[in-house]
Amino acid sequence: MSLVSDKNALALEFGRICSLAAVDIMAVYNSDFEARAKGDSSPVTDADERAEEIILRELEASLPGIPVLAEESFSAGLRPETGSSFILVDPVDGTKEFINRNGEFTVNIALIEDRHPTAGCVYAPARNRIFLGGQSAFAADLEPGTPPQMSALAPIASRAMPDRQRTAVMSRSHADERTLAFAEAHGVSERISAGSSLKFCLVAEGLADIYPRFGPTMEWDTAAGHAVLNAAGGAVLTPEGEPFAYAKVDRGYLNGSFIAWGRAPGT
Fold first, then answer.
1. pTM strictly above 0.90
2. What is the residue extent of each domain of the chain?
3. Under a CB-based contact definition with an 8 Å cutoff, are residues 123 and 104 in contact?
């Protein structure tokens, strides 16, 4: 069985690569680093660039020939032909969280096939916590530089949606009035703030029920968390209830609004 066809093994390989890149990320995190502004005014640090270089090198060795769309390379003007299968990389998701040193940043890698994520890894190195999604979803404590082992991973699953007193997870940096209104309309009584793709993982672990997002994101921001949540039994849909698709080339890989559900409506 090839690596791409065995989605659990592929997610595990993504985890190995994320953990390897996290060594350099944490070296920068624990230093007196400086943030710079990219052309779109978003922040970037040496950690983003060093981690992406490692990730791209390792992906080329493990999965040669599969196009890779990575945030920093994209910002530098590289636009590979993605086709029906490609990999999305965000070397440091939640750069603001990284700069604020609150630990809520992640390393994200995901495979997209036919416009949907089929395997992914979300790794939070400052929290020593990894989440993998393939055929199934798993999580474990993991120190940077340590390859994840399937024997050490614990299965995770999203929880059944309660009729009331629901818990919503929201962006620490980007919650807005529309998000708050959605939460109120859907019976949310508790709100959890979190940064980066950890929001998807809180829903995947059954610690929250809904993650609504109406602000802008890019595909590399969401694909890995989406893969983990799918594998845990959840779903990511548009606000109209349609599947949330990737490979939006005509939009420059810009996402629209979405709702991440612990269980899809009606299930």
1. yes
2. 7-155, 166-261
3. no
